Amino acid sequence: MADWLKATLTEKVQWSDELYSLRFEAPLPEFKAGQFVRVGLDIDGERVGRPYSLVNAPHESTHEIYFNIVPEGPLSPRLAELEKGDEFLVNSAVNGMMTLDQLPEHRHLWLLATGTALGPFLSILKTEEPWSRFERLVLCHSVRTPDDLAYQDTIMQLLEQHGDQLDFVPLVTRAEHKGALKVRIPAALESGELEQRIGLELKADDAHVMLCGNSDMIQDTQQLLESRGMKRHRKREPGHITTEKYH
């Protein structure tokens, strides 16, 4: 049975009114980029825990989670109130199948995220494996407002290091923003606007797509990809689409 471990907050980053990152020290076991951990607090005599993806790569000693406040939720508002030096809990079991070792071989990897689902993709991109396995990688981050475009410094560093392999496309659905598409991910694919932006066609014979985020994006995008001859990836039946829903 997994144990709860003590975590100590080393840094809190507030990206916008409702978006936060917590960086912390904790004796977590080895994990794979893209996995998640349960984070908890004891609230009114009850231990409340929720899964959060790790933003840090396995080789980084400081762990990190990225989340939005759920106003009616019991946990996230309290996590956002923590300050440097405060303690909370993390579970010793790190889980999740949103990892590169689960994928079949393809030339191109598309990482399509909404909101805080960007986190596991950053963990993956900060490792060496994607750059040795794939010729081209496409990272798309869809948010509602420009203030929600977090981790821009990290993404710029990745582009500086791997600009010949990596394309980044921000999508801001409720406001105009320089360099961003003002459209949802499924619509950007359906119209061809996304592929035109980077000069790369998304097709079944050379691409794998990882979808992470809200269920509407995942459902709509998966249907569109299936119309292009792509199918859900399973261990016993290799395919082109890997998904993980955040809500």
Automatic annotation (TrEMBL):
| Region of interest called Disordered, as start-end residue ranges on this chain | 226-247
Domain FAD-binding FR-type span(s) in chain numbering: 2-101
Oxidoreductase as UniProt keyword? yes
Cofactor(s) named in the record = FAD
**What Gene3D superfamilies is this protein classified in?**
Nucleotide-binding domain of ferredoxin-NADP reductase (FNR) module, Translation factors
> Which keywords appear in this protein's UniProt record, sorted alphabetically?
FAD, Flavoprotein, NADP, Nucleotide-binding, Oxidoreductase
- Catalysed reactions, semicolon-separated: 2 reduced [2Fe-2S]-[ferredoxin] + NADP(+) + H(+) = 2 oxidized [2Fe-2S]-[ferredoxin] + NADPH
Q: Which CDD domains match?
A: FNR1
Protein name (Swiss-Prot/TrEMBL): ferredoxin--NADP(+) reductase
